[in-house]
Design a protein that fits this description.
The chain has about 120 residues and is an alpha/beta fold. Helix content is about 40%, strand content about 15%. The chain contains 4 helices and 4 strands; from the N terminus they run βββαααβα.
């Protein structure tokens, strides 16, 4: 089975094409209510550590490559990442949801690349 793993901002409208929706940030998306934001799974421990997230956000333009490497290292030791891999194994379409405004440089990009 070919699996599709796509990315979407938490603020983008939900769609049936999203398949299984996994929110992968540590913090709840600002301004969204629990009644209107729909996801199938949310494990906060998949997100980057608070220290790494705050360090990256101080200078995202110049720290992206180093953030990727540091976050991959965190995920390689994180049992939640293996649990996520098992959880989505039989899902044909998975959408990783994130809150960042930057669609190209965020933790979901790193997670998707590691899952593929």
């Amino acid at each position: 089975m070919e699996q599709t793993i796509q990315l979407k901002r938490a603020y983008d409208p939900e769609s049936p094409a999203d398949g299984y929706r996994v929110y992968i940030d540590r913090l709840w998306p600002r301004g969204l209510s629990h009644e209107t934001f729909h996801y199938d799974s949310w494990d906060k421990s998949i997100a980057p550590s608070t220290d790494l997230r705050e360090w990256f956000h101080e200078d995202p333009e110049n720290r992206w490559t180093e953030f990727e490497e540091k976050y991959k290292a965190e995920l390689s030791k994180n049992p939640a990442f293996d649990a996520l891999r098992k959880e989505i194994a039989n899902k044909p379409t998975v959408t990783l949801l994130f809150s960042s405004h930057d669609r190209a440089h965020n933790n979901a990009v790193v997670v998707r690349n590691l899952l593929k």
